[in-house]
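Morning, I've got a small favour to ask if you have a moment. I owe you a coffee for this, so here goes:
>
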Amino acid sequence: MQNGNSVFSRLDVKKYILKKNLKHDLPSSIVVFLVALPLCLGIALASGAPLFAGLVTGIVGGIVVSTLSGSQLSVSGPAAGLTAIVLGAIAQLGAYDIFLLAVVLAGVMQLILGLLKGGTIGNYFPSSVIEGMLAAIGLTLILKQLPHALGIDSDFFGDESFFQKDNENTFSAIGNAFSHFSLAAIVISGLSIAVLLLWPKFKKLAVIPAPLIVVVLGIALTIVFQNTGYALQAKQMVEIPVVSGWSEFTALFAVPKFSAITDSKVWVVAATIAVVASLETLLSIEAVDKIDPIKRVSPTNRELMAQGAGNMVSGMLGGLPMTSVIVRSSANVNAGGRTKMSAIFHGVWLLLSLLFIPGIINMIPLACLAAILLVTGYKLTRVALFKHMYHKGWDQFVPFVITIIAVLLTDLLKGVAIGMLFSIFYLLRTNMRNPFFYKIQEEGNKKNLRIKLAEEVSFLNKAAIQVMLTNIPKETNVIIDGTNSRYIDPDVLETIFNYKHNAYTKGIIVSLENIKTQYTVPKLNSKIIEEINN
């Protein structure tokens, strides 16, 4: 009876939490749905895949991945960072159904990676780089969505790369947008931004999500401009496939060609997708946890397994590979999402819109959706963040700024890699400066030098220690104290022992205190390991 009451109470708690957060998650899910819809279509278009494939990926990412994931705010779907890989892979493999097999295999690899605790890689991304990535995403949203807000839609809606397929780059596209803008798009985006900023200030009206008002306003203004000389063109609107029945809907699905499983090229593509998608997911999860108001920590190994399951399902249904996506996730946070139900609902809305209201969805202008992303970008790139990182010191501020510039001029993974290099440089410099401290005492004409080694002395400290030992003056008594050292790298030990052996030629007497001839790498205790793995 007690066990039954325990189970009953747990169910009650879950129902209470669901009901309590539903007033936040439901409106947020609508915002994420509105942002995700054109992104799914745009990324599918840029990837050389059917538009329906992008929607399938968004639906699976919302319903399947969010259900299995341990992250409460992350939203998964097709990622702009994978477009070049997908486009090249489809061309290389020669058929879309063979590519789908690679997506399924990539999902299996991610599942195995999660089981092997590969998600701990995410713990090694420095905070300054993650903050820089977030700020860069915000700036990218502003720069890339500005042309759409002005009515220029030459590139696809989800393009995040600096160099575009239309031979333009981010800055030249903005310049062209100011030269060939659409008055209707400017009016729609301008009023949309005003609504997004002002609507939440009215508490009684804020029950209805501002982005929903923006979409209704955008559709209404599109109708108003329709019979004027400023009417929006088809490429300035959302465009999803229109199906008239269940048979047409099911005909849109594709299945993998399993007979190609012995093709080595399929496995190479699968491994590439698995690695890139996993890295993007871990980066996104780390970034989402940074902006989570409640500061929850997502289990990264579970996330990799959820992504693996999602990619397997997506590939089986004809969809694209997916990752956790920071644009949709940050939109979820900014819209007030509290739990994973927001992401799950957004997947449901994608499915229902495709089945029942494609005509209405196709009346939404891209300009009002661009306004939503512009406001999201502004919140990610707030001035206060730059001030905060500056006050933390140059070792934090420089990698932060470098990451921003690198992401803007390249892409997410390359930008983060460049930011990591600068972080590692500052880490190496700090480690090289802090392997020891020393104290000099004079007794008559003799100098006594006591060198106390740090708790951890790695091979990175070898150069600093070697320089210090070389510069010790002649006729000095040297005591090298390893009392506080839990680990001394073999290279450093070799340097110390060699110095002790040869120092007599300079009249230097070297004494070693509590320095072993061999050290083993200190192990984390089981409790810490368990926390990391979870």
